[in-house]
Amino acid sequence: MTRALPPWRTLLPAEHGTWFMxxxxxxxxxxxxxxxxxxxxxxxxxxxxxxxxxxxxxATGQRDPRQGRAxxxxxxxxxxxxxxxxxxxxxxxxxxxxxxxxxxxxALRADFSRAVxxxxxxxxxxxxxxxxxxxxxxxxxxxxxxxxxxWFLASLVGGANLxxxxxxxxxxxxxxxxxxxxxxxxxxxxxxxxxxASALLVGPHGIAxxxxxxxxxxxxxxxxxxxxxxxxxxxxxxxxxxxLGGLLLLWRALL
Length: 255
Fold this sequence. Notes:
- The chain is an all-alpha fold.
- 80% of the residues lie in helices and 0% in strands.
- It is built from twelve helices and no strands.
């Protein structure tokens, strides 16, 4: 703890879900293309991610010089790591990051306004995080098609999990049946889209592709199970463990 910076606990995003939203595409890219440029790009993304609490406090008018210094620190780290990635890999990886900028702005606007996080906003944020996978792949010399496939599947996996968790928490909070039925529709749509995309894009990749496609089917069956009460924290970590298993399967399928 120093006087120059605020307590570290105030600098770390508190939501477990956002950590998993960041980690899946970031680790997928690093597993598929482990290069120095990709690692530097991942560190730059982590610095940007950690700057969000300080950025929100500064943008909403909280007058704490320590928050401003924390924002400056993370900004400089992001520039340094990003500059290193650019020097090693060139500009190829910038396109998916540029395409994600509108998605990031939409998510930040909802974050700064303290708006209730709707599923469309969360899906937008997940797609923005998903851009890290193709950026890291392109920095490592992968093709545009490989990058697009990784972005699409990483965003779909995260989106399907978000819809499932929102439906689950709706039961936990005792929402009325009409709202619960409304939350069911995106659960079906996103899981079926994930399953179809997996069968088409990854299924033909031998045993690893078949295993991933089967995993996508199991995720859908998991979402169809009747509701059983479970603490939100345990639910978050359980979903994180499932995401880790899915990450390893998708990594093997996309190699």
